[in-house]
Sequence to fold (501 residues):
Amino acid sequence: MLPRFPLIGAALAALSIGPALAQTKTDVTIVLGEDVDLVEPCMATRSNIGRIILENVSETLTELDVGGGKGLVPRLAESWEAVNDKTWRFHLRQGVKFSDGSAFDASDVKHSIERAMSDKISCETPRYFGGMTVSAQVVDDHTIDITADPAQPILPLLMSLVTIVPSETPVEFTRKPVGTGPYVLSEWTPGQRLVLERRDGYWGKEPAVTKATYVFRPDSAVRAAMVETGEADIAPSISEQDATNPATDFSYLNSETFYLRLDHSMAPLNDKRVRQALNMAVDREAFIGTVLPKGTELATAIVPPTTLGWNKDVKVPAYDPDGAKALLAQARADGVPVDTKLELVGRTNNFPNVTEVMEALLDMLKSAGFTVDLKMYEVAEFEGLYSKPYPEGRAPQLVAAQHDNAKGDPVFSMYFKYHSKGRQSGMSDPKADELIEKASAASGEERAKLWSELFAYLHDDVVADVLLFHMVSFARVNERIDFKPTIATNSQLQLSEIGFK
Fold:
């Protein structure tokens, strides 16, 4: 078993907390482990941005009510129906205004879709619409037809990812987002704090929270101590070691899967035996209850088991370092450069104990015979390694990342993670491409069957990557706050869901 890695003690943590941040009974302070490098609405599918911006500042046409279990619900669209196999008609909410006072209408939706999909701006949104051409046609001020080619049966669900901005918004990243949500961004000092304030004129019910101040502290013990002393109200992510108070601390399943993305384009990772050896080198069970919380589940797919098409017949690779060494020896005998130095790449503050997890992975890989270095990066630099175009002259990389899919369908993951043209794909396989394209356009039982086949093919035949864990999170919530985290909390934290006792 791995040793338990202690974090910085509470006594040291308390020294770096500083003066109280929450000022009034209806203000809240939320302390996060990771800073944001962007506040661009079309990047809100990235969890560190989405938990601040999504549905607080920038809203979507539809919303998946993951926490409440209501399924797909209206947001800026009141209703929708299929016009034909490829086109859906959305009836928009009337009387809605953006935070700059301009009226919301169908032209804003059309512009938001075209802006998000434009190759002139590097939005996250197109990753989830991979292989599709999405277009919008204004019917009238409050009606719009949205077409996906090839046909996409779950297009209304996909629209829960497209944040709506005014039609005047330029096709470039903004530092001052204008949205229809109940809050406006009033202050952003990168690396220090970000403030959202409740605005007048919001179309929906007025939230109880008048102002939210987000601060960033990389150490879990510091975040937990800030809530304990009342200097913060919510810490959405703390380590299990710091979750010591049953009155304020909650564990919750999140929708993140932690894995190593392998670059199949480079030797020795282009050899299946090497990829199998990497999987066999990791003692997954040793992490659980030590550097990762009890309840963490072993992964056989990049999506959680609640996802459509889940294949229960796919098994976790057995821990077998001797078998890994034997595979490397076979590959070496065939001329594969298995002694090439690999880079294990991680993202700092991605989750509690991430550094300890990465160091343990490094030791396991070395023990199985791999030559590997560990490099940790802040989020902005990490994204440059995680997404295409990948850097020229890079070493063969094992990119450690979390992927969030709380939507219940693999379409939100499979194209951009595994298709040859996927923005975060490390592989190119014609059969995988075909399965992804067929499943994305299918419906009902056929859709589930194709996704299930793809899961098995990627895991057993391709050995696409090193799938590791479905993650569990812990949060600390001040006793004055009426809020409990859900599976959605990691990727969005709606201030309207926070009340006061």
User: Anything to note?
Assistant: The two ends are 43 Å apart (CA to CA).
